Amino acid sequence: MRERRAAAATARALVLAAALAAALAAGCASGGGAGARGPRLVAGATPAPVDSATLLMWRFDETGGPRVADSGPLRIEGRAGVDTRTEFGRLRNARLFTASLESFAYAPYRPVLDPIAGFTVEAWIRPVAFGAYELTPIAGRWTAQPSEQSWLFALVGRGLTPVIAGRPSPGTFASHVAGGGPGRLMFLYQPEDAGPARAYFSSVPVELERWTHVAVSFDGQVVRFYLDGMPDSQHAATGRIRDSRAPLLVGNAFDWRGLSDFGGELRAEGVLDRTPYYAFQGDIDELRLSTVARTEFPHARFGGGR
């Protein structure tokens, strides 16, 4: 088992190195985009770098349409739902997510998405509301199917009663949010070894209608949260994140099998319950996944702003 994991890790590292070299060569050949017309960069803001540990880098700088480009070496492109749109973000453009089942960004499963050892997920977010139910995902690879549960990075919701929320929650995450308050960051993962899923929370909630850089890293021993590039809290947590065939879903949580691209647009037409229980409301920018547990985020220390 250990030999197979080591071989898989070596193969993935070689793929990442080759892809990064190709991406850098392509950038040099095209002048790295210098002089190209595009969305503005906020004064004082610094884009997250793409390096050898970058698994995925969605900058959300598109000017429209469903395509979500990946600036990372593996070019893991995504597609956005019809109820998202692009607008000015923390750095150039961002993707605005709304209270709709059709508000999401999606990339199908591929083996390279499974964390080997270290792992980091980070983004700039500007939420305009906390969800009425258990949580609202920022990004994750987690479904209601036990065999499709790896990790989830989310904001804890308000957990309203059915009378106030309008209808009862499906309860997908009900057993995981105890210990977190509204607006706190949550990292949920399923260990590779048998046992229940583990959930951890930031000590400080994220503010509404304010840009905040949020990050969580896991090195197999400690889960660490960061806000605007600064440490927030850390938690002892042993065990590798379990591999699964779950896709990457940003800004929402539902059964991805209900997705259809009939007519050229990716829609959740096959999801029978149209209630957007877990839809993120607000902007997400500069989503980066990494294959190491990062501890430094210098590009995030100029954070804040409305």
UniProtKB/TrEMBL annotation:
Task: From the UniProt annotation, give the residues forming the signal peptide.
Answer: 1-21
Organism of origin is: Eiseniibacteriota bacterium
Provide this UniProt record's keywords sorted from A to Z. Signal
Q: Per the record, a Pfam family?
A: Laminin_G_3
What is the recorded name of this protein? LamG domain-containing protein
